[in-house]
C-alpha cells in the first residue's frame, strides 16, 4: 500500500510504503483509537521531510561508536564513569523499537543521548546521525521526547493544556482555528476526546485524569508539532496492562505511518511486547541484541538460551541479561551474548545501515533546512500564554491565593480588634500606633514571603523540562509567573489595610490611608521578591528556609522599633541597605506622625514623671526616624524590589543552565 504525501513549500512529494510490523494480526483499533483510521495516519498524510534527507522518507536514526559517561565525584575529584560502552545501531522510519534490559543496564542513558536530551553531567562521544547528519539543537524541534514522569499544571483541563501548548509549540503562522483542529484530531486519535473538559488533576487527587490518560496526554503534547521521531521513556510504567496496550497500539499505528519511535520499557506484557517491531537489548552498557523483535528469540536460541514456553520472551530476555552483583557466571554469560551479537549477522545488518547513513550524509553537503520554514511564536505571545496558564492555576488552586486571602483577612481583623479604640493623641496611643504599624509591616512581609518561597518552586521541574526542550526562555517564564501572582500581591495588602487600618484608629485622612496601602503593597512585593530569590537560589525549600529565617530575624530586629538606627552595631550596619522592614516601618511612622502636634502627656493611666513625647517629630526622633526620609524609603523599596527580582531571575537562569 502506498501513501501519497502532499507537496509543500520546500518539501518533497514522497511515496511511502505503509509498513507493517511483519505481524499479520496487527492490532485492531479499539474504541478510543477509531479516529486514527480517518485521521490521516493510514490514508493521505501531509508530512514534512527535509530536502536534503538521504532517504527522503521519515527519519533514520543511526549511531556509531557511541560512548556515554557521567561525571562522578570520587575523593573530591571528578571522574568519568562509563555507562554506555561503544555501541552502534540504527533505526529506520516506521520502526517502533523497545529498548529493554535489566535495571541499571543503561537504557535511559542511551535514549537520553540519542534524543539529544543529555544532562550537563553527561559526556557523549561518538556519532549520532539523523538522516546522515549529526544531531544538534534542531532535535528540540524535530523530535518529541516523552519523559517518564508526567508533569502538568494540574488545575488546567485537557483542552486548556493542549491549547496553551499548541500556542507555545506551533508555528506562529498557523491560525488559531488550525491549531484547534489539530488539537481535536490528536485528542481523538489518543482517545482523549471524552475528557477534553476534565481537569488534569494532581497525584493523589480523586478528581482528574487516570494514569493512562495522563500518559496519553503527555504523548499528545509531544505530537502537537508532528515530530517524525519520538523518544518515550518508560511510557507504560504505572499503567495496567490494558492501558499500556492501548498506548503502545497507538504508537504502533503511528510508526506504521512512517514515524520512528523509540521507547525504553520495563517488563511489557506479551501483548504489548508483540506490538514492537524492533528490539534493542542493553546489558552493562553494551548491546546484547538489536534487530527485529521476531528474530530475538532465534538469536538467543543459537547461543543456547532457549525461552521456556511458559515464559514471556520479554521476561526471558531481561532475566537472561540481569546480573546479580554476586554472580560471576551471569556476568560471563552476558559478556558472551554481547560479544556474539557484535559478530553476528544481525549486527552486520545494522552496520550496513549505519555505513549507508554516513555515506549519504557525506554525499549531501547541503545545509540543514528542516526548520527554515518554522516561525517560532514571538516572545510576547509566549509571555501571554504562560501568564494565562499560571493565572488559571492561581485562580483555581485555593492553596495558592484564595485561602491565603481569607487567612489575611482574619489576621487583619484580629490586628484591628487588638488595637481597636486607640487614641494616638495620648502617650499610650503612641505605643499602640507603633505596635499596630509593626504588625502591618510584619504581616505584609513574613506570610507572603514564606508562602511564595514554598509555592514558586512547585513549577520549576515543569519549567526546566519545557525550557530545555526549547519552548521558552527563563526570562519569559520568570516574568509570566510574577505577572500571574501580582494581582494577589496587590489585593492581599489592600484588603489587609482596608480592614485593620480603620479598626485600629490610625490617622483618618485619605492621604494617610492611601500612602499606607501603597507602602503595605510595596512591602508585600519586596518580601515576595526576596522569597522568590531565595527559592531560586537553593535547590530545595528546606535549604532556602534555613538561610532565609536568620536573614529575616536580622532584618526584623534592626527594623527600627527594637533598636535605634544610630545604635546598630557596625557588624549589622549593612542591614540599613537591605532592610525593607526598616524602610517600611519608618515610612509608615512618618505618615502617622508627620505634622502631629499636642500629644497629651497627661492621660491618667501613666506615671507623669516618665518622659513625654509631645508631638509627632518627637515620636519619630525616638526611633531615629526622620520626616525627610519618606520619599527615600519608598524609592529604596522600589530599588530592592528590582534587585531581588533580578537576582531571583539570575539564580533561576543558573539552575536552568546547569
Ligand atoms: N549521574 C550519574 N552518576 C552516577 N551513576 C549514574 C548516573 N546516571 C546514571 N548512573 C548509573 O548508570 C547506570 C545506568 O543508568 P540508567 O538510568 O541509564 O539505567 P536504566 O537501564 O535506565 O535503569 P532503570 O531501568 O532502573 O531505569 C546505573 O547503574 C546508574 O546508577
Automatic annotation (TrEMBL):
One of its GO terms (cellular component) is plasma membrane. GO terms for molecular function: ABC-type transporter activity; ATP binding; ATP hydrolysis activity. InterPro entries: AAA+_ATPase, ABC2_TM, ABC_transporter-like_ATP-bd, ABC_transporter-like_CS, ABCG_dom, ABCG_transporters, P-loop_NTPase. Residues 61-309 form the ABC transporter domain. The keyword Amino-acid biosynthesis does not apply. Keywords: ATP-binding, Membrane, Nucleotide-binding, Transmembrane, Transmembrane helix, Transport. Its main location: membrane. The chain crosses the membrane at residues 405-422, 437-457, 478-503, 509-532, 634-652. Pfam families: ABC2_membrane (PF01061), ABC2_membrane_7 (PF19055), ABC_tran (PF00005). It comes from the Eukaryota. The keyword rRNA processing does not apply. It is found in: Membrane. SUPFAM superfamilies: P-loop containing nucleoside triphosphate hydrolases. It is a multi-pass membrane protein. SMART domains: AAA. Belongs to the ABC transporter superfamily. ABCG family. Eye pigment precursor importer (TC 3.A.1.204) subfamily. This is ABC transporter domain-containing protein.
Amino acid at each position: 500500500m502506498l501513501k501519497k504525501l502532499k507537496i509543500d513549500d520546500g518539501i518533497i512529494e514522497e511515496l511511502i510504503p505503509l509498513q507493517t510490523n511483519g505481524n499479520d494480526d496487527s492490532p485492531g483499533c479499539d474504541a478510543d483509537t477509531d479516529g486514527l483510521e480517518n485521521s490521516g495516519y493510514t490514508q493521505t498524510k501531509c508530512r514534512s521531510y527535509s530536502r536534503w534527507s538521504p532517504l527522503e522518507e521519515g527519519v533514520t536514526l543511526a549511531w556509531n561508536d557511541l560512548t556515554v559517561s557521567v561525571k562522578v565525584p570520587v575523593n573530591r575529584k571528578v571522574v568519568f564513569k562509563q555507562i554506555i560502552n561503544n555501541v552502534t545501531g540504527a533505526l529506520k522510519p516506521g520502526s517502533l523499537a523497545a529498548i529493554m534490559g535489566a535495571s541499571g543496564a543503561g537504557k535511559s542513558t542511551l535514549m537520553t543521548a540519542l534524543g539529544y536530551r543529555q544532562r550537563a553531567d553527561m559526556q557523549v562521544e561518538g556519532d549520532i546521525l539523523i538522516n546522515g547528519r549529526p544531531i544538534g539543537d534542531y532535535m528540540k524541534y524535530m523530535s518529541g521526547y516523552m519523559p517518564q514522569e508526567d508533569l502538568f499544571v494540574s488545575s488546567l483541563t485537557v483542552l486548556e493544556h493542549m491549547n496553551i501548548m499548541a500556542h507555545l509549540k506551533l508555528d506562529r503562522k498557523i491560525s488559531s482555528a488550525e491549531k484547534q483542529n489539530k488539537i481535536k484530531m490528536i485528542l481523538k486519535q489518543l482517545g482523549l476526546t471524552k475528557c477534553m473538559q476534565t481537569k488534569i488533576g494532581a497525584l493523589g487527587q480523586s478528581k482528574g485524569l487516570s494514569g493512562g490518560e495522563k500518559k496519553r496526554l503527555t504523548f499528545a503534547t509531544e505530537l502537537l508539532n508532528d515530530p517524525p521521531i519520538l523518544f518515550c521513556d518508560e511510557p507504560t510504567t504505572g499503567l495496567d496492562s490494558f492501558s499500556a496496550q492501548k498506548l503502545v497500539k497507538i504508537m504502533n499505528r503511528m510508526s506504521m505511518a512512517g514515524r520512528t519511535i523509540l521507547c525504553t520499557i520495563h517488563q511489557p506484557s506479551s501483548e504489548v511486547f508483540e506490538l514492537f517491531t524492533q528490539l534493542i537489548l542493553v546489558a552493562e552498557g553494551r548491546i546484547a541484541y538489536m534487530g527485529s523483535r521476531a528474530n530475538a528469540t532465534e538469536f538467543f536460541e543459537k547461543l543456547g538460551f532457549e525461552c521456556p514456553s511458559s515464559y514471556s520472551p520479554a521476561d526471558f530476555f531481561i532475566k537472561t541479561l540481569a546480573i546479580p552483583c554476586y554472580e560471576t557466571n551471569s556476568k560471563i554469560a552476558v559478556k558472551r551474548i554481547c560479544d556474539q551479537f557484535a559478530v553476528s549477522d544481525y549486527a552486520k545488518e545494522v552496520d550496513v545501515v549505519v555505513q549507508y547513513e554516513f555515506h549519504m550524509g557525506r554525499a549531501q553537503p547541503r545545509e540543514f533546512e528542516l526548520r527554515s520554514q518554522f516561525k517560532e511564536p514571538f516572545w510576547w505571545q509566549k509571555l501571554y500564554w504562560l501568564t494565562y496558564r499560571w493565572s488559571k492555576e492561581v485562580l483555581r488552586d485555593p492553596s495558592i491565593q484564595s485561602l491565603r486571602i481569607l487567612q489575611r483577612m482574619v489576621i487583619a481583623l484580629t490586628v484591628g480588634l487588638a488595637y481597636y479604640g486607640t487614641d494616638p493623641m495620648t502617650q499610650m496611643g503612641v505605643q499602640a500606633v507603633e505596635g499596630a504599624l509593626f504588625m502591618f509591616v510584619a504581616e505584609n512581609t513574613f506570610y507572603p514571603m514564606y508562602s511564595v518561597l514554598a509555592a514558586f518552586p512547585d513549577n520549576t521541574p515543569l519549567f526546566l523540562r519545557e525550557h530545555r526542550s526549547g519552548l521558552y526562555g527563563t526570562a519569559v517564564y520568570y516574568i509570566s509567573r510574577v505577572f500571574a501572582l501580582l494581582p494577589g500581591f496587590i489585593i492581599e495588602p489592600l484588603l489587609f489595610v482596608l480592614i485593620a487600618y480603620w479598626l485600629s484608629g490610625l490617622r483618618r485622612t485619605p492621604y494617610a490611608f492611601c500612602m499606607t496601602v501603597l507602602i503595605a503593597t510595596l512591602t508585600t512585593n519586596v518580601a515576595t521578591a526576596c522569597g522568590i530569590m531565595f527559592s531560586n537560589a537553593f535547590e530545595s525549600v528546606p535549604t532556602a528556609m534555613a538561610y532565609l529565617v536568620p536573614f529575616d530575624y536580622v532584618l526584623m530586629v534592626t527594623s527600627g522599633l527594637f533598636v535605634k538606627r544610630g545604635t546598630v552595631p557596625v557588624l549589622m550596619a549593612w542591614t540599613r541597605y537591605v532592610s525593607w522592614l526598616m524602610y517600611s516601618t519608618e515610612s509608615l511612622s512618618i505618615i502617622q506622625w508627620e505634622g502631629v502636634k499636642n500629644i497629651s502627656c497627661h492621660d491618667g493611666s501613666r506615671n507623669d514623671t516618665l518622659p513625654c513625647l509631645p508631638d509627632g517629630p518627637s515620636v519619630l526622633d525616638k526611633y531615629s526616624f526622620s520626616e525627610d526620609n519618606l520619599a527615600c524609603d519608598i524609592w529604596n523599596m522600589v530599588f530592592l524590589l528590582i534587585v531581588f527580582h533580578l537576582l531571583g531571575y539570575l539564580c533561576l537562569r543558573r539552575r536552568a543552565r546547569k
